[in-house]
Amino acid sequence: MVCFACVEPLQCAEGATAPDLWTLANQQAKVHRFSTLLTAHDVRQSLSSPEGVQAAIDWCKQTGITKVYLEEYRDGYQAERATLEQAARAFRAAGFEVSGCVTTTRVGKPTTGWKDVACCYTDAATQEKVQAIFEYAASLFDEIMIDDFWFTDCACPECDAARRAKTVTVGDRTYPVNGDTWEDYRCELMTRVSQARVLGPAKRVNPKVRLIIKYPQWYDNFHNRGYEVVRETADFDRIWVGTETRDYLDKRWGGTPQYEGFFIMRWLGGIGGAKCGGGWYDWLGTTEHTYLEQARQTILGGARESMLFCFGGLHGSTGPKDVEALRVNLPELFAAANEVRHRTLVGVAAYKPPNSHPEKEARVFDFVGMLGVPLAPCHEFPTNAPAAFFSVHALKDADFVPKLERFARSGKPVLLTDGLARTLAHRMKLDLGNIQILPVKDDPKSLLRLDQKQCDEIRAALLKPFKVSCQAPAQVALYLFKDKSWALENFNDGSVDVQLNGKTVAVPGRGWVQHWK
Ligand SMILES: [Zn+2]
Fold first, then answer.
1. Which of 12, 27, 38, 366 could lock onto 8 through a cystine, CB 3.0 to 4.6 A?
2. CB half-sphere exposure, 206, CA atoms < 13 A
3. How many CA atoms lie within 13 A of 343 on its CB side?
4. CA 187 to CA 121: how far, in whole Å?
């Protein structure tokens, strides 16, 4: 990895200031935009004086950021109207796009679950408080992002009674719930509260306002906490995607492999289509290497914007080092975004139906991607895909078995998890030459221990329809595009040699190589 400005390694001192990132970022804004959020607390601490506003503007310009989200509410604190209005005027005058944001933490009645994070939205007073917050935000801005705490895991007596009664009550309306599980109740609750307490009231205050639902990074749990990605995506104006994978080995934040940023960006991008605005990652539990990996996965995932959470956070702990690395790599990231934008991703279809249950294969897609299997994430059965990977998630699809039988009979390569194969053993023929079984062993993390020989074997059959051959060590991800362009990203510390289509490609440690046709 080198600095484009001075062709020196990443740590160079001068690279961060040349070229002029503000000019470059404005030139590239139509293709890809970097943005940041000033939380309600950042607004109070950093934007309450003209000097503070100017310092924030300068920092954003130096970082190639051309859009800011100024937050109205977080953790029980509502930012002042005058401060928000003055800051918004100054940012706009300086050439920035400016939107609002709401974080629904400590809104009212606390949940019985994830303390200080979620709330009980069965509670009528909490619903009313939420409505008032969004009315306030809509009176200030024409676009409002909702940070990814717009869920509930409450199981209080009030929630439990409503769940058993299979009804959701919002204001004076009561809606039926299609089932009596917590998943059924919470998905219906959050959908209805979004419609009646967020979207409706905000648009009555400001008919121009567009609301963005930002989905968290923990995609296999969405349904359990009421993130209903199909109905909510249909209801909201735009969606956003959490790609904050952080450092796999970090004691507090670790355990998520880097490839997840790409997987979730593409999966939700498929559900959201034109509504999908961008990705969102942060500095927590990162090194400058993992921070850049988040940036690359977000761009390879097809994002049109990268939201860097958040202004205050990026000024503390590992933030400044992350920002320094990002600035150096910004020209390369913009260039990659330009290439990705005009191309169609191809690969081994990876089918996760919306609201599907992971059972013991949580986030298995992320780990399969780390084996160098180039995935094409999808939320509908990939009937026409050249090759496909299926896990227990697919069982959410009521017609999955006949669909899989047809797919397998066509002779296309299929990779099944051992868990799914166990479930299917008595329902269909699995001993076909084109079906491989992946040994997940109810422990997706264990896939990271597969060696190069095992990875090469899994890949070999799956890549045949793409006329691609690839021999690579574990933890080197491969991305394929329809016009034969490709990218390789090496998540190992040391450089590796990859044999791609018979040629040796040297991929630097914690770096990537792109080949655009
Ligand atoms: Zn409750």
1. 12
2. 18
3. 24
4. 12
State in Å: Cα 185 to ligand 1 middle. 11
Count CB atoms within 10 A of the CB of residue 74. 24
Tokens of 384: 């026409």
pLDDT in tens, 463-499: 999 999 999 999 999 999 999 999 999 999 999 999 9
CB neighbourhood size of 259 (10 A): 28
439 is written with which tokens?
A: 């040994």
pLDDT for the residue 18 = 52
Instruction: Decide: 137 and 72 in contact? Cβ < 8 Å.
Output: yes
CA of 128 to the centre of ligand 1 (A): 15
Phi and psi at 83, nearest 5°, equal: -65, -45
- Amino acid identity, position 124: A
Length of the chain: 517
Q: How much is the pLDDT for 115?
A: 87
Q: How far does the centroid of ligand 1 lie from the alpha carbon of residue 480, in Å?
A: 46
Which phi and psi angles does 291 have, rounded to 5°?
Answer: -65, -45
pLDDT digits (tens, 9 = 90+) for 25-76: 999 999 999 999 999 999 999 999 999 999 999 999 999 999 999 999 999 9
Q: Which residues contact 317 (CB under 8 A, 6 or more apart)?
A: 283
Element (H, E) at 264: helix 259-272
Q: Which of 289, 271, 267, 464 is nearest to 366 (CA)?
A: 267
Of 503, 447, 511, 444, whose CA–CA distance to 476 is shortest?
511
Q: How far is the CA of 156 from the centre of ligand 1 (A)?
A: 4
CA of 150 to the centre of ligand 1 (A): 14
Query: What is the band of 3 on the pLDDT scale with cuts at 50, 70, 90?
Result: very low
Per-residue pLDDT tens digits for 306-333: 999 999 999 999 999 999 999 999 999 9
